[in-house]
Amino acid sequence: MYDYFPEDIKPYIIPKAKGELYYQCLGCSAQYPIDTLLYVCPACREVLLIHDRNAESLKKIPGSIWQKIFDFRRMLKIPALKGIYRYHEFIGSCIPLESIIYLGEGHTPVVEANQRLQEQIGLTFYYKNDGQNPSASFKDRGMASALSSIKYLLDRKLISNVIAICASTGDTSASAALYASYLGPLIKSAVLLPHKKVTSQQLSQPLGSGAKVFEIPGVFDDCMKIVEYLSSRYSVVLLNSKNAWRILGQESYSYEIAQDFDWKMKDKAIVVPIGNAGNISAVMNGFIKFLDAGIIDALPKIIGVQSEHADPVFRYYLEPDETKRKFIPVNTKPSVAQAAMIGNPVSMPRVIQISKKYNEIAGRKHVFFVQVTEQSIMDWQLKANHNGHIACTQGGECLAGLVEAFRQKIVTPNETAILDATAHAIKFSEFQDLYFKSEIHEDYKVHSNPELINLPSLVLPDDQAMIPSQLKRLNEKDLQKFVQNISDKIAKKLNLELSDSLLKKI
Fold first, then answer.
1. SS3 at position 141
2. Mean pLDDT of 174-201
């Protein structure tokens, strides 16, 4: 196959593990090697980002060549390069291909909204369906990176007998348990979930992957405090987005969008829910890296969305004077966007630093934050899915955020928006069921719109004695009567008209 590749990219098409990665503290700027398990700065306890000492050398390759490299890598059949590590040099450049974990994550489809939905919103927009990752959420991007880094350390015999642990609102636990199980028995996983704050579908995932699951009273922020305490005292691997490898993997979301839109990011707007703030940090950082390497032509707008029931980042940026801003965690209220129901996001320092850099590079305000109601989240999720999407409630939050951003003229009709559907709609189908039954608890402040309610209709035959079952099958004559009776009832409900060929016979 390589014989057919252009000569100018042949030396680069199979990446080599030659990066020099290191942790850098966002607080005191201290640097640490990556051959140890580290989640916060030992000196000042601030969160970390991963940098590459060889990053400047990436600029020696023209941006147009990088584009060709990534485009032609799509043709490769090497598993390690099929997922997020197609962009190996920009993600885990020190990790050899044999240490990379690939379970089918990344390169999720970008689906354009139909004309009817775009007309309702007022501009062209797409959903990037990250629910089509292996565990049905975007978390697999960061988890593939984090677990590949662990396997890298295992392969080098720098660690052994790994216990991986995370706090979760559902998606992180599902992803962590899945990827850890793939590396079993080298890695065992444990997850902490807020009791009765996770859908049954999400709870079933880590259980199915064999993880030890602990339900904790309170909310996600309480679970996170326990995980932080455990990781500070015991030899465990923390798999929340406090783990800088998670952020590194989630940058792939930006790279894929850039490639899907032929590297043209001018007049684009990326809409993401905030949650623990790791994903929006990674998205911004990814675009910065690609612009710095000359791979994309501009930085797209970034719009972070929060529900009014969990909005600490939105509140922080309400103060226009950055010297007067003070981050204050909030006590969350029940939210249908459960994965984003976080009052004290651990990646807030990353958001502050990276968004400031992002705006400076763009030469103007290019990162925005909007707040939406619970009602709008649920209504727009259902409207999106009524028009061919598979958006979760966080995807509904993004669409509600786009509507609000358009109202505020943050985005304009001549721009194109790409929305993050972070998980598959099935993960949050309980909220859809409750909405259709008008049974969402009053604490959510969501009322069911009759126009969006969709419930099944039980159709019974006139003769109750002619109801088939597995134990009681109808004879041929009765079955024909049953079929005709039920068919006529359905035709009436659907206002069907007899076909022309049948009318001619009558």
1. helix
2. 91
For residue 326, with 0-12 CB atoms within 10 Å meaning exposed, 13-18 middle and 19 or more buried, which class applies?
Answer: exposed
Q: How far apart (Å, rounded) are the C-alpha atoms in residues 189 and 205?
A: 13
CA nearest to 149, candidates 271, 49, 249, 252: 249
C-alpha distances in Å from residue 112, one per residue of 115, 138, 330, 360: 9, 19, 35, 31
CA angle 460, 465, 471 (to 5 degrees): 90
Phi, psi dihedral angles at 439 (to 5 degrees)? -120, 15
> Which residues make beta-bridge pairs with 496?
none
* 193 CB-near residues (< 8 Å, 6+ apart): 167, 168, 169, 170, 173, 203, 213, 214, 215, 216, 223
Structure tokens at 174: 């599902």
Q: Which domains are present in the chain?
A: 110-134+251-444 (3.40.50.1100), 138-248 (3.40.50.1100), 458-506 (no CATH)
Token duo for residue 95? 């990790």
Q: How far, in Å, CA of 56 to CA of 47, rounded? A: 24
**DSSP character string of 301-365:** EEEEEEETTS-HHHHHTTSS-GGG-----------S-GGG--SS-TTHHHHHHHHHHHHHHHTS-
d(CA 272, CA 395) in angstroms, rounded, equals 8
Residue 80 near residue 100, CB atoms below 8 Å: yes
Q: Which of 13, 19, 14 is nearest to 94 (CA)?
A: 19
Encode pLDDT of 9-41 as tens digits: 999 999 999 989 999 999 999 999 999 889 999
Torsion-angle region of 342 (φ positive above 0: left; ψ -120 to 50: alpha; else: beta):
beta
CA distances from 217 to 53, 67, 193, 236, 431 (A): 43, 49, 9, 22, 21
Output phi, psi for 349, to 5 deg. Answer: -60, -35
Is-contact 432 438, C-beta < 8 A? Answer: no
Is 138 exposed, middle or buried, given 0-12, 13-18 or 19+ CB atoms closer than 10 A? buried
Mutual angle of helices 252-260 and 278-292, in 10-degree steps:
60
Count helices and strands (H / E) in the chain.
16, 13
CA dist 433 to 137, 380, 385, 453, 454, Å? 20, 15, 14, 9, 9
pTM of the predicted structure, to 2 decimals: 0.94
Which of 352, 353, 355, 351 lies closest to 364 in space, CA to CA?
A: 355
d(CA 131, CA 139): 9
Q: CA-to-CA distance for 411 and 394, rounded, in angstroms? A: 20
How confident is the model over 438-465, as pLDDT tens digits? 999 999 999 999 999 999 999 999 998 8
